[in-house]
Design a protein that fits this description.
Elements: H1 3-10, H2 17-22, E1 27-31, E2 48-53, E3 56-62, E4 68-72, E5 86-88, E6 91-93, E7 100-101, E8 107-109, H3 119-122, E9 127-128, E10 130-133, E11 136-139, H4 155-158, E12 164-171, H5 175-182, H6 227-233, E13 238-244, E14 247-255, E15 260-269, E16 273-277, E17 282-292, E18 295-304, H7 311-319, E19 322-323, E20 328-329, H8 341-346, H9 358-366, H10 384-401, E21 424-429, H11 433-447
Antiparallel strand pairs: 1-11, 2-3, 3-4, 4-9, 5-6, 6-7, 7-8, 10-11, 12-18, 13-14, 14-15, 15-16, 15-21, 16-17, 17-18, 19-20
Helix pairs in contact: 5-9
Bound molecules: FE2/S2 (inorganic) cluster and fe (ii) ion (FE2).
Fe (ii) ion binds at residues 181, 187-188, 191-192, 361.
């Protein structure tokens, strides 16, 4: 890849072509938990947070009526930082000269101006629409005169609170390399490899980092195998993809015996979300939102198609590995991501712990450097999805620059009708895997207590 192209697909600040594209999609801006006084006592009296997205400084707050506002952070008077504002029932007041703003950016008062002044009527702070889904606040930062697309009805956004859990973490790297790890079907065979297996009974639904410890659906000689064993023993997946309205559906096949094939179906929702199976009844939908060119928050939405989730336990498990209030991982470049050469020799392929496999991906993402130099890489057959995604990204950037509609979930004609998408990780009869996995997906939906049959049929290309 040429250096100019790498710049084009990684830079997201105001006015950049890629930033223009990404701003057309609903993007996560904070967890509702960040406004939970039990987790952060500072927000009890003052639900106001400084946030940064796409290299823009913003302030997020809730008014007395419980409505959310997201405004540019620089006060339109003389530019002081509104995240230090006085929180009032109907808005946020700049402490410099007392100008007050409502959640929609309307100026409510300019108290230092002479009585009768109309200055306030002429001032409006840029505001961005905010909606709450799956315990998360989403913002739309598209063109000021534009209309946000309908919010897509993906599983994680329609499942009830009892069956979902949202968490996030900060990675010190560009958004695209964060996403490119998640859509790479070859890496679990290596990066997340455990050299020994644990008994399947030892893996609870809430086992935080033990993603590939869970059982793959289906049986080998009457026995269930953990995903990690299959990944380890069959490390050359046959990767293919199928275009979908939301992006692509990815299939990785691992032929095991003449009779059995392991099939893993995951999804890349354009531009920066993947949906993968965590276990037979749980999926993870993970979005990657740029803070700026070299920092990215991942947001994970866990969705159960079986029993309700123990959200408190899931939060407690994950909180061990990050520092609040900014969800910064305790492992990172500063401590070499906890690398232990002895563990690498005897227990895991990577040597960065077994409890939180998120660190594995974090290392892959961050060790490339803040913005991966794609002029120096050598892509192979197993990087097919990475290449296809970059092509789609370049096309979408071009389309938006030419005045066209951004694809997938930013397209108002398509986004409202988006549902699913389905995933599977299982051992299928070799010749019948295409029908077998659809059947598995159907059964999973039929048993989901919160899904009305028929509302989330697999999308057709
Ligand atoms: S800078 Fe905010 S009121 Fe003057
Ligand atoms: Fe991974």
């Amino acid at each position: 890849m040429k250096a100019e192209q790498n710049e084009l697909i990684t830079r997201v600040g105001p006015g950049t072509p890629c930033g223009d594209l990404l701003r057309r999609y609903w993007q996560p801006v904070a967890l509702v938990d960040e406004f939970n006084p039990a987790l952060d006592p500072r927000v009890a009296q003052r639900p106001v947070k400084a946030v940064r997205l796409f290299g823009q400084d913003l302030v997020l707050f809730r008014n007395e009526a419980g409505q959310w506002g997201l405004l540019d952070r620089d006060c339109p008077h003389r530019g002081a930082d509104l995240s230090f504002g006085r929180h009032e029932p109907d808005g946020l007041r700049c402490p410099f000269h007392g100008w007050k703003f409502a959640i929609d950016g309307a100026c409510l008062e300019t108290p230092a101006e002479p009585t009768g002044s109309r200055l306030c009527d002429r001032v409006r702070q840029r505001s961005y629409p905010v909606v709450e889904r799956c315990g998360t606040l989403f913002a739309w930062m598209g063109p000021e005169d534009g209309t946000p697309p309908p919010f897509p009805a993906f599983d994680c956004f329609v499942a009830p609170a009892s069956h979902t859990f949202a968490f996030k973490g900060l990675w010190f790297a560009n958004w695209l390399q964060c996403f490119e790890v998640g859509i790479d079907p070859a890496h679990p065979s290596f990066l997340h490899r455990f050299l020994q297996d644990e008994p399947l009974e030892a893996i609870g639904q809430n086992a935080a980092g033990k993603q590939f410890r869970s059982a793959s659906a289906g049986a080998v000689n009457g026995q269930q195998w953990p995903m990690t064993r299959i990944m380890r023993e069959f490390a050359q997946p046959e990767i293919s993809f199928e275009k979908q309205p939301f992006g692509v559906q990815i299939t990785a096949l691992r032929p095991m015996t003449p009779e059995l094939t392991h099939v893993r179906v995951t999804n890349a929702i354009f531009p920066a979300t993947f949906v993968i199976p965590l276990s037979e009844t749980m999926t993870i939908t993970q979005m990657h939102v740029p803070v700026d060119d070299t920092h990215t928050y991942w947001y994970s939405f866990f969705t159960s198609f079986g029993s309700p989730l123990d959200r408190e336990a899931m939060r407690a498990q994950r909180q061990q590995f990050i520092s609040l209030p900014d969800y910064i991982p305790k492992s990172g470049r500063h401590n070499r991501w906890g690398f232990n050469p002895e563990e690498q020799r005897s227990q895991t392929y990577l040597g960065m712990g077994e409890e939180d496999i998120n660190v594995h991906d974090q290392w892959a993402v961050e060790s490339m450097g803040p913005i991966q130099d794609r002029t120096r890489e050598h892509l192979g057959t197993s990087d097919k999805i990475i290449m296809a995604n970059r092509r789609s990204l370049l096309q979408a950037i071009e389309a938006v620059q030419a005045g066209g509609v951004a694809p997938g979930a930013a397209d108002p004609a398509l986004s409202g009708g988006m549902t699913g998408p389905d995933t599977v990780d299982g051992v299928a009869p070799a010749g019948e895997w295409p029908t077998w996995w659809r059947e598995q997906a159907r059964i999973k939906r039929e048993h989901a207590p919160w899904l009305v049959p028929g509302i989330a049929e697999p999308a057709t290309p």
